[in-house]
Amino acid sequence: MTGGSAREDIGGDRFEARAGDCLLSPEMEAILARLAEEDAALGDPTLMKPRDGRAQAEAVNARWNREMPALFAAGDFAIEGPAGNPIACRLLTPSADARGLIVFVHGGGWAFCSMATHEHAARRLAIAANAHVLTFDYRLVPEHPYPAGLDDCAAVWNAVLEGHGPLAGLGGPRALSGDSAGANLALALMLRQIDEGGALPDAGLLFYGVYDDDFASRSYVDSAEGPGLTRAKMMRYWDFYTPDTSVRKSPFVSPLKADDAALMKLPPLYLNAAAIDPLRSDTANLARRLEALGRRDTYRLYPGVVHGFMQMNPILAEARTAAEEAASAFLEVAGKMKTT
């Protein structure tokens, strides 16, 4: 993957947002006004009982999952999790000649959402890359704190490596992908595979991820009150995921705490960030570290949009562009594999 930012022509710190980047685009502003009206009576899910918060998350995300893009096939199956728990999986196949596999880990603060809430976005990625996309439901917090969700992700990755069931015979490159907390889990899994000498994917496609618990970062200050995701909500998500804060020192929890040697062993990465997002600096700091190591990963900063914008792909142009750019990064890796 080639390196760089969407704003390479400016001086200074090209990884961080400028003031103009943090102004809502007209399209984003209109969407947020619509959501404010539709969701006016709803509470903060991080302050609800988990069951109620999850029901609300499923309901509000349903609006992004209507009129699904057509696929060649979509099939459900299950694998056994590390605690004997069944892990529901869905394999999305965009065409008869789809090549490669993208394992997509959904976001939701480790606490909410599911493969259903992210299916439209996953289908968009599958079609753009003409690759199979595998989604699944991992165990959620606070009932199942770290490392339960990560262990489930590892079980799914092992099923991919072993060619379990419908995953048998899928050729081409493999990628680990995810958004927000799902990007955290995808990157943490890669780092754990490195630590354990396990097999890595050929690429990582990571969208506005959680990579550290630095609540004083520039973006946590800039976007402390949102719109959308806030600093207070993220702090609660972290408390759900790791009630023992000492655990956050681990790179398998906070990937930015990984040492340089581990980061150098990662596969090529596509990273994106939303300019108006408490997590923006997590991605900027990761991209900055990777470049300082001499790596050439792809970094894209999307101005004018908020955290979770790729969920809005049915009505937001930037979301569709982000999916296409991630797919291009995957296809670039696939092309290099064909020529070696």
What does this structure look like?
- The chain has 340 residues and is an alpha/beta fold.
- The chain has a single domain, classed as Rossmann fold, CATH 3.40.50.1820.
- 36% of the residues lie in helices and 16% in strands.
- Strands 1-2-4-3-5-6-7-8 form an 8-stranded mixed β-sheet, sandwiched between helices.
- It is globular, with a radius of gyration of 18 Å.
- The chain starts with 25 loop residues before the first helix and ends with a helix.
- Mean pLDDT is 95; it is low at 2-12.
Per-chain topology:
Blueprint: H1 26-38, H2 50-61, E1 73-80, E2 86-93, E3 101-105, H3 119-129, E4 132-136, H4 148-162, E5 174-179, H5 181-196, E6 203-207, H6 218-222, H7 231-241, H8 260-264, E7 269-276, H9 280-292, E8 298-306, H10 317-338
Parallel strand pairs: 3-4, 3-5, 5-6, 6-7, 7-8
Antiparallel strand pairs: 1-2, 2-4
Helix pairs in contact: 3-10, 4-5
Domain Alpha/beta hydrolase fold-3: 102-310
Keywords: Hydrolase
GO biological process, one term: triglyceride catabolic process
Structural descriptors:
340 residues; alpha/beta; Rossmann fold; eight-stranded mixed β-sheet; 8 strands; 36% helix; globular; disordered N terminus
Q: Can you count the helices? A: 10
What is the class in the CATH system?
Alpha Beta
Helix content, binned percent: 25-40%
Main structural class: alpha/beta
The string of secondary-structure elements, in order, is: HHEEEHEHEHEHHHEHEH
How much strand?
Answer: 15-25%
In short:
The protein has helices at 26-38, 50-61, 119-129, 148-162, 181-196, 218-222, 231-241, 260-264, 280-292, 317-338, and strands at 73-80, 86-93, 101-105, 132-136, 174-179, 203-207, 269-276, 298-306. By secondary structure, the protein is α/β, with parallel strands linked by helices. The protein has one domain: Alpha/Beta hydrolase fold, catalytic domain (Rossmann fold).
